[in-house]
Amino acid sequence: MEKAAKGAPKAQPGGHQLRREVVEHHQRQRILAGAASAIAARGYRAVSVADIVKSAAIARARFYEHFGSKQDCFFALYDDAVQAALAEVEAACEASDGAFPERVQAGLEALLARFAADPALARAVVVEGPAVGPEINDRFDRLIADFAALLRRGRPEESPVELPETVEETVVGGLYWLLYYALLEEQPKRIQQLLPQLTEFSLIPFVGAEAAGNAVA
Amino acid sequence: MSERGAGRRDGEDEGFLARWRGHEAEYLDCLRAAVASAEGDWRESLRAAAWESVRWAEADPAAARFLTVDALAMGERGQVCQRRLTARLMGMLEGWLRESEVTPPPGLARWVLGLFYASFHRHLAVGDVERLADVVPQLLFLAVSPVCGVEAALAELETGPPQSPGRFHP
Question: What whole-number distance in Å separates Cα of residue A50 and Cα of residue A38?
Answer without folding.
Answer: 10
